[in-house]
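Hey,

Quick one before I head out. I ran the complex with flavin-adenine dinucleotide overnight. Inputs first:
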Amino acid sequence: MWFRRDLRAFDHAALHHALVQARQDGGAVYCAFVYDTPILDELPRDDRRVAFIHASLAELAAELEGLGGHLLARHGDARTVIPALAEALNAGAVYVNADYDPAAIARDATVAAALEQAGRAFHAYKDQVIFEKSEVLSQAGRPLTVFTPYKNAWLKQRNLDPQVLAPWHVDPHAAQLAPGRSTLPALAEIGFDEVDLAAVGVTPGMQGGAEAFEAFLPKLAAYGTARDYPAVPGTSQLSLHLRFGTVSVRHLLRTVGELAERGAAGDGGAIWVSELIWREFYQQILFHFPYVVRSSFKPVYDKVEWESGPEADELFAAWCEGRTGYPLVDAAMLQLNRTGFMHNRLRMVTASFLVKDLGIDWRRGEAYFALKLNDYELASNNGGWQWAASSGCDAQPFFRIFNPVTQSQKFDADGSFIKHFLPQLATLTAKEIHAPWLAPGKAPDYPAPIVQHDVARQRTLARYAVVKAGA
Ligand code: FAD
């Protein structure tokens, strides 16, 4: 069993199937994880996600040991490490949960081919989503590229087959896990530093996932309204756990479904389920249209000419570092840089600001988020950026341009989120804080706006005119 983005030992499709097969064959299941160097080599030493994985693996190993097994964690290129490990263990087959990221698909194809050559099988299961690949299509059998029809088809299919939410049990009594001692390299051995995850409010592993879900459930009913305000802890903070599989999406949906049946999920329950469906929507977009990794979903948007050169580089640096002079944008970027999380409303505001106020290619912002977000997920990040840039499927129209001041007035009215990250604005009133340049002398340590929104807006409309012309 090769664990990747599924770091748990319950409700686990591949582990379930591996154990069933082992029981039938009278065999045993070895559990492995690879710190995959083609991925890790790109990351800074203090990457929070690697620390999260490291801590989650320690918990997973302990859990597997409790079930009679152990965990072998290796460091190297998974394309060679996995076939070599399979050979060393004389494994008949390798079990995984499917990953729909194009790079992961290519890696898995290489591993599967190497295994096959040695007479070993490679079995991949659906686990991280309820519906994968082409399971939800239009009536004409085509991928759905607009969210609402996708969501309706998704819900219909789930209602027709409630079994899709059934757990894949890992039966502790019948577990056929190979006994042994876990081997887990220290972070330093794989070239990374310890990170204080607790300081950024993250508890790793299955325990962290369970705690986050428990803490969220009482807030579920109010989610529909609370979710838009970054100063309010109204969302689940489960994205990181969904990313690394320290929660089971089936378990989340079963629990919310049960609450809804008892009338205890309020309006928030259905809205929250919609968000999980957005996640699957983008996963299937990536699967069917892998070109979105580099290009606009709507090709005409690749005709837009972005700002480039030293001036654009300086604007980009100011955006990354949270010194644009727009408090909500800056506070959001500081939240990202310091914690690795950013509230969804702020992801929309900052992405829009980069693309439509600074005129910078969405791919640069996407890459920055990919480096910094703890919950970085190629499908959702790309989908979110292309939504903001208007180049994506079901994106906001190009002429809709967020005003960073009115967004701030609306979603952080009293400025409490801003003040948390920008204490130099603490003395500004709720009226002043959204546009400090209108209160001269009150925020001497805070930069002037790097761009004038009204002017930028006109430039953006002109920039996007090629889209209208080419559409
Ligand atoms: P909740 O509001 O509690 O939502 C529950 C879950 O639904 C989330 O954990 C997430 O898995 C899923 N979800 C919620 N909103 C979306 C959405 N718009 N698209 C896809 N899935 C969603 N999400 C990521 O998981 N990884 C990313 O790399 C990522 N990048 C983004 C980039 C941009 C520009 C934008 C606009 C959005 C991005 N999102 C991304 C979506 C969303 O912002 C986060 O999922 C959400 O903020 C995570 O917080 P939460 O777990 O408290 O979410």
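Strands lie at 2-3, 31-36, 71-76, 93-97, 121-125.

Talk tomorrow,
K.
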